[in-house]
Every structure is written in C-alpha cells, then in structure tokens.
Specification:
Blueprint lengths: L2 H25 L4 H11 L5 H14 L3 H15 L5 H18 L2 H11 L7 E4 L2 E4 H28 L1 H18 L1
Antiparallel strand pairs: 1-2
Helix pairs in contact: 1-2, 2-3, 3-4, 4-5, 5-6, 5-7, 6-7
C-alpha cells in the first residue's frame, strides 16, 4: 500500500485497533488465535506490528522456534519501516536465536551477512551475554546434531516397533479395499 494511502487508512482505523489490542493484551495476553485474528484484521494499522511481534514472542517463549522464526521474519519483511532501531535489533537477535536453536546454520550465516555480523570478531548480544559468530555457529551445529540424533532415535523406534508397522499396514490395507 502506498505511504499516503496507508496514512489515510491509519488515520481512520488506528484508534480502534489500539483499543482492541490493548484490551486483548490485558485480558488474554497469550491467546495466539485471538492475536492472529487481530493481526489479520489490523495488519495495516500501526498496531499490526506489535501484534505480530507478540505472536513471535509467545512462540519463542513456548519453544516453538520454527513458528517464532516465521513471525519474526514476517515482522522484519512487512513492517521494517515502522520499527525503530532498538526494536529491529531485538527482533533480529531473537531471529538469530531461533535459527541457532533450529540448527539452521545456512540461514544463520545468510542473516549474519545481511546484518554485517559475518566477521569472526562480530558479536551479537543476548541479554547480558555477547556471542561471536563462530560461537553461534558452534551452538547451531551442536543443536543440529542433537535434533538429528533425536530424529534418528524416533525413526529407529518406529522401524523396530511392531505396533507402528502393523498400524501403518492395516491402514494401507483398509484404504485399498475401500477404493476397490
């Protein structure tokens, strides 16, 4: 939406959106569905970005790093012009944490390059702790290894469990007989 049209839209809708978001955050601050509906209805207002950030934060707090990553990426892509420097930095830091937690070293390197943090001495601060990119990548690789080990353990369990084999086979057989 062009800037002038967005400004006119906000002039007529921001007061309603602000009141609705304040009420929502006061009465149901962790209600993801209500926040998602709010964002869908008020994305173009000045209050869309805070709602999307809260959605990312809820997912991050619950350990849903993939969901959190998507919300933070959308926030940076759709609302970057509305975010102030400190807010942008905080969101970028949370996005880096999501990528490291997911073990996504390729996306982490790409984001670091975009942020100008790809040098060995570049540091990213999380709360009180400053981490260099090599340390972040080390954490990322460790996390990826842990995730792969867990996935392999689950697959081994499924392969070796007669219950899983029988239930999958019986579903396939019942589908074949129904389709005939």
């Amino acid at each position: 939406l062009p800037a002038e049209a967005r400004a006119r839209y906000r002039a007529t809708r921001d007061y309603q959106a602000k009141a609705a978001l304040e009420d929502l955050l006061e009465t149901r601050p962790d209600d993801r569905e209500a926040l998602r509906r709010f964002y869908d209805q008020h994305e173009l207002t000045s209050w869309g970005a805070p709602a999307l950030e809260r959605l990312g934060d809820i997912a991050f707090e619950r350990g849903s790093l993939e969901v959190s990553k998507r919300h933070y990426q959308a926030l940076l892509e759709r609302h970057s012009g509305e975010l102030k420097g400190a807010a942008t930095g905080a969101i970028e830091s949370r996005l880096v944490a999501c990528l490291a937690g997911l073990g996504d070293s390729d996306a982490l390197r790409k984001l670091a390059a975009q942020l100008g943090l790809d040098g060995a001495d570049a540091k990213l601060t999380f709360g009180e702790q400053a981490l260099t990119m090599p340390k972040l990548l080390e954490l990322c690789f460790a996390r990826r290894g842990a995730l792969e080990k867990r996935a392999n353990t689950t697959l081994d369990h499924i392969r070796s469990s007669p219950q899983h084999t029988a239930s999958h086979a019986s579903r396939r057989c019942s589908r074949r007989t129904e389709s005939k």
